[in-house]
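Hey team,

Filing this mostly as a record. A colleague (T.K.) asked me to run one chain through the structure pipeline before their review meeting, and I want the input and output archived in the tracker in case anyone asks later how it was produced. No errors, nothing strange. Just documentation.

Input sequence:
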Amino acid sequence: MARYVEAVAPVESSREPWALPRALRAVTHFCRHKPLGALGGFLVLVMLVMALGAPWIAHYDYDYSITGSRMKAPSPQFWFGTDNLSRDLWSRVVYGARVSVTVGFLTIALATVVAVAVGVSSAYIGGAYDMAVQRVVDAWMSFPYLIIILSLMAVLGPGLLNLILSLSVLVAANNARVIRGAALSVMQNPYIESARAIGSGHLRIVLRHVVPNVMATVIILATIGLGGVILAESALSFLGLGVPPPRPSWGSMLAGSGRSYMQRAPWMAIFPGLAISLAVFGFNMLGDALRDVLDPRLRGTGIGPGR
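Output structure:
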């Protein structure tokens, strides 16, 4: 009796052997479709590396005076030249990145917590509470930003902590209104009514349904706000209300010796100003690209990424 043996075809793996990891594919897709955003992310990454690795990247300590090297032009020994006190400008710019990153991220972190708490609670509670909170926000936003910051810094005095508190209050007031609008939009979805119908408490609804659905807006505001905070910190340091010396800040480097010796040693003003410009540009481009990626209303419109 003849036996028929059926040949079983080998089962092909559903996963390609050379497939890239999901995270790497997402990064590659982002770089291909958002080149300016990728450039901004690269500049932000360079700034973070400079801030975290300042003791190893800098050639000297930020306040170290090199004998016989007063106002030297950029050279292989001194990449950015030296200032009027014989300090290496490259080292001071690198350590200045640490100040900007510290002020920027701590300010945005504190402002985001306050803005989310105020915006979400205002949208969820509504009524007289919402009206009172929004009128306070309106009154706060009616004053020019520079006057508010200068007034707060004049009362609190210069210093890293006071600078972070002053900027965070201003950023939180602006972001709270945007987050409130996003939370009001989330509140109109049917799953909020479903959560209430099955007996979910207010805190559970806010933490499980409202806050996660406004996180895309929060991330966009935080990323874009970092550039503005760094620019504001540099402006306050330029006016003498930022981080006190001898700690280097890009704004104070422009205000002091950079402005006084601009014609004789222009590199003392060029490189701190270039650092400020690149940092603000990087955060703005990255935030704009993240807005296009994370905002579902832009998908399929030719502005955001495709499905």
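Quick notes for T.K.: The chain has a mean pLDDT of 78. Residues 89-125 form the longest helix (37 residues).
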